[in-house]
Amino acid sequence: MTRRTSTIVLTYIAAAALTTSPAFANTDARLAGKHGDWSVYTQGSGAKQICYVLSEALAKSPNNVNHGDIYFMVSNWKNGAATEQPSFLAGYELKTTRAPKAQVGSTALSMFAADNEAFISENSDERKLVSKMRAGSTMTVSAVSKRGTQTRYTFSLKGVTAALKQSKTACS
């Protein structure tokens, strides 16, 4: 399993801890803090610990479709496999041939889709997006569902800097 693939799988597991589905009731995600519109979670222990910040979309469009739960997450792994890795979590399967885009201010970065998640391909672009998130006030993510529905989400960035700091410290 490649670093990126294992990151996707473990990020999915971490995000699943936040759902109310009975299938994920046995996860050990713990709320470690709340900063503005962002929450900090830890999961696991020792070298396997994952720390992440998470925020739910404030606005979803179009209004006439069921989006499910929509989150944006930035993950840190204690073992160093990921440091401030951003990802988008949709409540539906994404169309893999139409790259989702995350935008903060005038900076827009393409992501790649895997099932109901999207990730930034290049580490340098991950750092760029997280830097822009720290400096911005809102972020939008545009995506296309597997069925072809074009969607757009707005996330508040209020509290993201403090949340990222706490997450990074918890997994250092």
TrEMBL record:
It comes from the Bacteria. InterPro entries: IalB_sf, Invasion_prot_B. Residues 1-25 form the signal peptide. Keywords: Signal. This is Uncharacterized protein. It comes from Litorimonas cladophorae.
